[in-house]
Amino acid sequence: MHLGVCYYPEHWPEERWAEDARQMREIGLARVRIGEFAWSRIEPEPGQYDWDWLDRAVETLHSAGLGIIMGTPTATPPKWLVDSMPDMLAVDREGQPRGFGSRRHYCFSHEGYGEEARRITRVVAQRYGQHPGVVGWQTDNEYGCHDTVQSFSPAARDAFRRWLAERYGSVAALNEAWGNVFWSMEYRSFDEIELPNRTVTEANPAHWLAFRRFSSDQVIRFNRAQVEILREVSPGRDIMHNAMGFYTGYDHHDLAQDLDVLGWDSYPLGFLEMFRFTEEEERDFARQGHPDIAAFHHDLYRGCAKDGRWNVLEQQPGPVNWARYNPAPLPGMVRLWTLEAFAHGAEMVSYFRWRQFPKAQEQMHAGLLRPDGEPAPAYAEAASAGRDIADLGAVGEAPKHAALIFSYDSEWITQIQPQGEGRSALWAAFSAYSSLRRLGVNVDILPPETELDGYSLVVVPCLPVMTRGLADALKRFDGEIVVGPRTGTRDTDFAIPSGLVDQEFADLIGGKIVRSESLSDRLQIAGDGWTAKGWLDHYEGEAEPEFVAGSGEVCSYRHGNLRLCCTWPQGSMFERLVERAARDAGLPHEALPTGIRHRTCGSTRFTFDYLTAQISFD
Amino acid sequence: MHLGVCYYPEHWPEERWAEDARQMREIGLARVRIGEFAWSRIEPEPGQYDWDWLDRAVETLHSAGLGIIMGTPTATPPKWLVDSMPDMLAVDREGQPRGFGSRRHYCFSHEGYGEEARRITRVVAQRYGQHPGVVGWQTDNEYGCHDTVQSFSPAARDAFRRWLAERYGSVAALNEAWGNVFWSMEYRSFDEIELPNRTVTEANPAHWLAFRRFSSDQVIRFNRAQVEILREVSPGRDIMHNAMGFYTGYDHHDLAQDLDVLGWDSYPLGFLEMFRFTEEEERDFARQGHPDIAAFHHDLYRGCAKDGRWNVLEQQPGPVNWARYNPAPLPGMVRLWTLEAFAHGAEMVSYFRWRQFPKAQEQMHAGLLRPDGEPAPAYAEAASAGRDIADLGAVGEAPKHAALIFSYDSEWITQIQPQGEGRSALWAAFSAYSSLRRLGVNVDILPPETELDGYSLVVVPCLPVMTRGLADALKRFDGEIVVGPRTGTRDTDFAIPSGLVDQEFADLIGGKIVRSESLSDRLQIAGDGWTAKGWLDHYEGEAEPEFVAGSGEVCSYRHGNLRLCCTWPQGSMFERLVERAARDAGLPHEALPTGIRHRTCGSTRFTFDYLTAQISFD
Amino acid sequence: MHLGVCYYPEHWPEERWAEDARQMREIGLARVRIGEFAWSRIEPEPGQYDWDWLDRAVETLHSAGLGIIMGTPTATPPKWLVDSMPDMLAVDREGQPRGFGSRRHYCFSHEGYGEEARRITRVVAQRYGQHPGVVGWQTDNEYGCHDTVQSFSPAARDAFRRWLAERYGSVAALNEAWGNVFWSMEYRSFDEIELPNRTVTEANPAHWLAFRRFSSDQVIRFNRAQVEILREVSPGRDIMHNAMGFYTGYDHHDLAQDLDVLGWDSYPLGFLEMFRFTEEEERDFARQGHPDIAAFHHDLYRGCAKDGRWNVLEQQPGPVNWARYNPAPLPGMVRLWTLEAFAHGAEMVSYFRWRQFPKAQEQMHAGLLRPDGEPAPAYAEAASAGRDIADLGAVGEAPKHAALIFSYDSEWITQIQPQGEGRSALWAAFSAYSSLRRLGVNVDILPPETELDGYSLVVVPCLPVMTRGLADALKRFDGEIVVGPRTGTRDTDFAIPSGLVDQEFADLIGGKIVRSESLSDRLQIAGDGWTAKGWLDHYEGEAEPEFVAGSGEVCSYRHGNLRLCCTWPQGSMFERLVERAARDAGLPHEALPTGIRHRTCGSTRFTFDYLTAQISFD
To answer: What is the DSSP letter of B459?
Structure first.
């Protein structure tokens, strides 16, 4: 594994570049990501390129021995470009155009901007694509950040109509698939179809799902256009993109098919503050992040990535600027996060960023260096992590223990129609993952179309759309299976199947879900030493009740090697259920103390202590 | 009383219709509501009608012995109609047009749509108005649902100006009535008057009140146009409309004057989750709904209805899809709700809906049948309720105990100017109603212009606009009277009367309210074993203090047969006050245990136990 | 000190005016503010003035012996004026124009309205500027109320571009100062710069700060135009404006330079409900207001005012209408507030308003008279306060104890970039002020460019932009100094200084802040008998740690006569720190019981008891 850093030579005097590069090498960094926000410096006037400064920066970094990952600058088109075609701005859900003045100010469906993005990609690739110092490319930056996948522009509407025509063939087929008869929503042609925003009450969920799929496809298409240019002009370099945390705006399984390496940006403290953690977790792990945040994404994106190649393109090195509260990591956490990524198989961890820029939007976001150029605390931790990794050398491959199944369209379905506030597939996956991790086992997070050979245990926390591949794989699977609520209850167009659940899934569970309730957290269902809550699927079939509440609710069933969890996959009942499944699967496990997590690679077992920031190997 | 069901033949294969009708009859249903969302099937292209399918559906249902309630399909105009006049869409409070893709996408003031609504009403009425199977009509569907009464469109603005000119005669009279001199808001002509949205800070409350009245009148006018056509083309059939719960967007007393039967849609579990109930109530009654939700609306809409004819046009049969959380009713509740409606005098209870449609916006909303056509739990409960009703036969008329006075303009005034967050007349009425019901007495909820003969007790929880009729009736009334805060403190244009309260009301209370305070719930006023809160009216006059707090606040006064409650009509002080009034009125009462409610009809006393879903008669 | 009242003769029959004036004099009022909302009566049609009524009103008040403060009516332009140029309406942050129908419906940057405002000011001044009864002028009314300083209109955008060109000279200088290279936000000309609203994610904080400064300057410019006319046409009269509470939309230090007297509008109960007080404070002081609300603003605006001349242009006399809950003041509070203003040096306290108007937006806002013309409780309290003041006669000057430094741009910076939710300079100032007041000492709140001679103690709670004048004054200061977090960490364009803190400030603290953390309130830092929270600045330098937490965090340092507080200036640690500083400064102090506050003037020490509304002098 390499360590790297994100660097913005355009922020600093040229005199400093060589010293920066020297220091990077000194603390063991081998990679440097540059260029992704530099369009206004590369092309200060339309068609007038200024390559000199970037040529010198590349040369300086290369000659210091650093491998350069060059970013295409398409996340930050300059003002002159926006002024030349103001309708390239995305339109928000309320129907108003978004503005220039930060970043990601473009609509993925705007053909004019698509052309400009390809042009700048091509000229940058032509300039540096063959440079020996350039070892990889990052396309754009954080697709979807700041809620930018969906645009409600005329361009998006027109493209959506074309996309629908392509997918459904006839408008009659679309009307039938979506059930548009319901409220006289039937269309006579694709040109009558609007985007699903601003409807009087919620739009047809099938309408939203199609729009989510379309919007995701527009991202994939935009990215692929850059990838094709880069593969043509700069062959042999790894192409990557930096995904985000707890983000499902586009289908990462799809995106990853066009990349060599799937990267992601790991900010455990910010994520803890901004996402759905309890007050207690926010207090106890304020300076560490919840112990499953980083690992969940490592395991998720490894499962998305083609050939399993992934990295951390941005690693939090200190306080950030964008969460509600921004504390500093506990001393040792930067090293811990780095080694944890290594244990989970990252090819690289790249710190964001080399030096804190004293101006503009992220002026309060730490770097390895302070704004005054002196080392920040992470500087020494990065160096220390580099030494640890060198000492460890290659570790063996991670053995397969548990597989957890997640799909992006399942998350979209549960976002569009949570039925109970906050019940979404992503968070079902996260809590199920956390339950597995507290047993000390390795977890792979896999797409539905996957192979399950070699695993002892498969958990499907919440997967409304059962796929043929997964149904078949589960049928063949001889380990233990745990399936959570809502699974198999939708076809690909959001309809409830005629048999209430997917036919093959019905075979697997020996019955069907005949009724679903969503429950507020006020309604605790209590059994013998356990509680469950949040949801209740009512089952009819031949499976045997396993966890039954004192008040009679059957919270789970067992059918052969499969357990069906009818409540939300969270809480003490679900933990016991997973523990039983692990036991029945013969999977060695233990109940880990608070804050402790394991990861096993070959004969090495890593132990990460999130309470103290200590790491040990045995 | 009849039982009925809402049915959508257009959702299901024609082969199934006869079997559906047979099953309906089998479980004792006599009425079926159809057609209200079927415009796109009735008129798939502009001016091209497709009656065949609906003819056959009507025939199938009729020949099975079901009485059909036909809906006019005006809540869901098809896309081609919207595209032909896009400005028929309502405009939201922010000034942006709302979109097609769900329902109720029209502005009540748009003349072009008004014409189209009359056209489709006429052709449907012409087709089925004389059919022997058609026993009634429902106009449109749930006027106001999804916040659709108010539209801030140019059409609404122009109509509002005309409405104001009609009401005030001269703009000088309007300026005077509204007090427009206050902030130089004086108009020189009606054409200078804008809608009250998007003002820099709140608009003149008189401006809002006029707009609320105008908006309500537009609904009445829209509905009346359909009623006139139906009466002409389909004489002898009952015309009805389905009102909603806790909804005051238009004046239901006004609407009901044009209808034969006022229906409403009863969803106790959804209402519990979505309206202002305490966490404790949401937990304890999650599967039942608060025990006063259904009865409050039964008694309210019976009081609105011309000749007291009312029904339940939609009855919740299982989990719904639109509340924050959507649990299933406790076994027995569907039967209980049905019999409770019967006890309160409903002509019909119609379950929504026959069979759960596996697609579109309400795919998670239960029916009597599951999506796969098998019976859902409510199926047997409906059958059981039908048998109970048959067994009971006719019960006697409900004796008059307590009358509770409520007016829609009082609610508008307290919404426009709550003065204290959440203090509104509707919720004052609900809590006062609940206090009466916990004494086991019958309650009638009546408009201010009413007769009070025969009642023992009259409660006026919060009625800013005292009417001449009510003041006179109260003067003549020889039972006990309880009057709550803010009553009589406004004229019809929102002004404080010159004597601070309405002159006749001043006579009734022997004084006046000289100052009002709204209090947060943090400020509890405590007396000897009781507490009060929320509001404090300061009284000057000859009435005697009755409930006086330890800290000196006079929370209520007594003046002859009238008690004046100066705090919000809620909590233990108010309960004692009402209990004393019942006692003084010689009205038999008792303190009912949690969850128990009575309703007395003739010699039968119904007891409904909301904790166990049990019903008994004695 | 004079007492006065706000009066609206246009609300009442002319027959009543003389009696009103007589009563005003009877209870000791000497000043009456009129005219500020009367444009539609002064100029009912474009260019047609109606002076008669106002002439008679002025004459009536004058002949009763009242000194008149005349308002320019520019806060409420009439509808005909708006219709003549609809683009005079301000545009909200979402880009939509705001509407007519309340007040303050104008954009400060609209040149056409600027001209109209000058025209109406001139004609009113010409009419009454030499009248012997007119003793002062109020410009407009509550600049900024209802969030009206910022407008995102084309007029504002164009003016902003001109303002930027003026300030920065070249766009290159602006790009450099703002760090626009960061996300390719570089501009090629000032004409490319947009307003900072509607950006995809947050705009550059330097962009926002410039826009805040520009918007403030537009207010100053608008006001100055009126002041110049008034000085020309009505010389020798005091010109004033009424500022608001907890409001920082424009720079009050700047505005006050153009005024003779800075007024403010004191509504302690409303402010308690609407601003950031704890539930406990809201309960305990519901009828009094937090005991530092009024005094904080007295001391703040006295420090803003040229020559220290200030007054209370509106004093709450009873319940208001605009807070979430609106209780009545405890008996005695109106008198207490009046005398407290006197003790803090007010030239006048003017009650808002004479008589409660029974209509329009403020119909629930109390006056000295009720709507029916009878005295409200405040009537007698005002009279009583007047007698007290007469009895007291002149009190000596208030001795200098503690100075507290606050600047508006520091507040803007912490609002734009709180880094931790809710951490703003104004509230740091308020809590530091409260800590000082609980020691019983006099506090002056001063701008950074100030003299510190004569004070024992200086507190700088949170001042990101250190000024040369303050740095020099602190260096020379030989009393005790307390400095809070973020101080000295920004240059005037929002950049972090090259040495991390301002160079002169670095000398003062003997080091620098090298890292800042914002902490949620969940993270309590506990020391020996104290707690701290909210923020943690990490310091490097030669100062000595003073308060050190059990877990090792250094919460404050001492360096010579300066204490550096690294946590938020709130809570028990900060209180101890301030108490130590007072002790070291030799400043007599004591720990006051809850609700008790002192103010010392000459040899008189006032004691105000907020729990009982008692006042004593010794």
So the answer is: E
